[in-house]
């Protein structure tokens, strides 16, 4: 029997967590009004993804173009060969020695991830997991990816996207460089890692270096050079060597530091009058039904369940918190496996989790949850307990693992209750 339902009842984070922990092999199909996406799993690790309405930037050739791994002429030649031979594009490029195996492997990984990260932003949809004995993927070029790292990156994106979209509300906005951009210089990555454009300081990341020049990252510099006062954000994303999220984050950082600004209509008309004409044609008058719709929406604030302003049901957990909670459970499970392995070999559980770090069985980061809070480990005479906290910082009954030492064969794990049924 397949696992299926709606994303409102069982989140994508929960699905990933379940498939990963039980090391299932099969295909997860996600459907929404905008797209149908399939994600392939092998022993609980992700090995592929595909989209029915595949965007231009999701195609392998476009990914290789964006990263400047090959030229347009090389891609056109490979596509012509593909039409004649029906071979996979990646293998054609490898056989003709246009790109290296490592370059192709990185491009395939980026192609898989950008489809998955877009699904994390879905508000609703249906899912179905079909368990299989094997899945079709290119084992020579695709390295299976752990779900935990993908959940963590997805949670970070969900946290930052709303902040970015306040400054970049749609993809038709056109930016140009300000006079301050001439003072910008690329800083070492080690220096830029300490600066976060989301820490609330408008000048962060634009610290003055020698000669009063402004310090920006290499990615921000690359995106900055794509802005000419006539190219909309949507096209900038397609031309960028980085993904949609990273490109928009760079634009947000440049905006925050006043290195770029939105192009005015007068400036656009001097650059290309057709741009203004297209923008004007896209503006439609407000329909008269908008006003009663607004009134109905206001009434629904106190009627619809789980609405943030509904005093009865209260808000739903943020999607990013659910992703982090799932990643926390998977991290705890890894620690738990090491704890039990230590007990099997050494005959006893360690006195503290840090003992596992000292013995080089785990990295120090594995002992903290995605919010950088330490897990609680309680070795007792008759039991061992490992617990974690909820996003609010309070003990979470679903993040709890316990072992009764009096009966070593009876392992009781208290966690997510959903279980995949056998096919």
Description:
This protein starts with a strand and ends in a 9-residue tail after the last strand. Strand 3 (35-42) and strand 4 form a beta hairpin. It has helices at residues 12-21, 60-66, 72-85, 89-95, 101-119, 147-167, 189-192, 218-224, 233-239, 244-256, 265-271, 273-281, 290-300, 319-346, 354-358; strands at residues 3-6, 26-32, 35-42, 45-51, 126-131, 175-177, 184-186, 214-216, 260-262, 376-379, 383-389, 395-404, 411-414. It has a five-stranded antiparallel sheet with strand order 1-5-2-3-4, covered by helices on one side. A four-stranded antiparallel sheet has the order 10-11-12-13, with helices on one face. A two-stranded antiparallel sheet has the order 6-9. It is globular and about 80 Å long. By secondary structure, it is an alpha+beta fold. The chain contains 15 helices and 13 strands. Helix content is 40%, strand content 16%. It folds into three domains: 3-150, no CATH class; 168-281, no CATH class; 319-414.
Topology:
Blueprint lengths: L2 E4 L5 H10 L4 E7 L2 E8 L2 E7 L8 H7 L5 H14 L3 H7 L5 H19 L6 E6 L15 H21 L7 E3 L6 E3 L2 H4 L21 E3 L1 H7 L8 H7 L4 H13 L3 E3 L2 H7 L1 H9 L8 H11 L18 H28 L7 H5 L17 E4 L3 E7 L5 E10 L6 E4 L9
Parallel strand pairs: 7-8
Antiparallel strand pairs: 1-5, 2-3, 2-5, 3-4, 6-9, 10-11, 11-12, 12-13
Helix pairs in contact: 1-14, 6-10, 6-14, 8-10, 11-12
For this entry, give a set of tags.
alpha+beta, 13 strands, single chain, 423 residues, four-stranded antiparallel sheet, globular
């Amino acid at each position: 029997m397949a696992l299926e339902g709606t994303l409102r009842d069982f989140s994508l984070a929960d699905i990933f967590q379940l498939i990963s922990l039980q090391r299932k092999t099969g295909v997860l199909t996600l459907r929404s009004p905008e797209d149908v996406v399939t994600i392939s799993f092998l022993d609980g690790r992700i090995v592929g993804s595909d989209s029915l309405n595949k965007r231009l930037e999701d195609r392998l050739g476009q990914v290789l173009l964006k990263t400047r791994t090959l030229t347009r002429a090389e891609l056109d030649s490979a596509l012509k060969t593909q039409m004649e031979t029906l071979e996979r594009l990646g293998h054609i490029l490898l056989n003709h020695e246009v790109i290296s195996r490592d370059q192709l492997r990185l491009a395939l990984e980026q192609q898989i991830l950008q489809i998955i990260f877009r699904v994390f932003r879905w508000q609703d949809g249906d899912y179905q997991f079909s368990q299989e004995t094997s899945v079709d993927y290119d084992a020579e070029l695709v390295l299976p990816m752990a779900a935990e790292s993908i959940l963590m990156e997805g949670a970070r994106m969900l946290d930052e996207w709303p902040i970015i979209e306040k400054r970049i509300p749609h993809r038709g906005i056109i930016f140009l460089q300000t006079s301050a951009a001439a003072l910008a210089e690329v800083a070492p990555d080690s220096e830029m890692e300490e600066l976060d454009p989301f820490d609330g300081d408008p000048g962060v990341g634009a610290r003055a270096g020698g000669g009063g020049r402004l310090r920006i990252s290499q990615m921000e510099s690359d995106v900055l050079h794509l802005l000419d006062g006539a190219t909309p954000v949507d096209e900038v994303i397609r031309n960028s060597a980085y993904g949609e999220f990273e490109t928009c984050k760079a634009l947000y950082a440049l905006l925050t530091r006043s290195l770029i600004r939105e192009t005015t209509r007068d400036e656009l008309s001097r650059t290309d009058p057709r741009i203004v004409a297209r923008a004007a044609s896209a503006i439609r008058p407000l329909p008269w039904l908008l006003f009663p719709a607004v009134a109905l929406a206001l009434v629904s604030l106190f009627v619809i369940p789980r609405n943030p302003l509904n005093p009865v049901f209260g808000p739903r957990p943020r999607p990013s918190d659910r992703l982090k909670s799932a990643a926390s459970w998977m991290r705890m499970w890894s620690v738990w496996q090491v704890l039990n392995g230590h007990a099997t070999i050494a005959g006893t559980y360690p006195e503290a989790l840090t003992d596992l770090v000292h013995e080089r069985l785990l990295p120090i980061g594995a002992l903290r949850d995605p919010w950088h809070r330490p897990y609680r480990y309680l070795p007792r005479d008759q039991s061992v307990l490992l617990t974690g906290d909820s996003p609010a910082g309070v003990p979470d009954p679903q993040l709890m693992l316990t072992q009764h030492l009096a009966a070593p064969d009876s392992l009781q794990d208290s966690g997510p209750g959903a279980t995949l049924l056998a096919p």
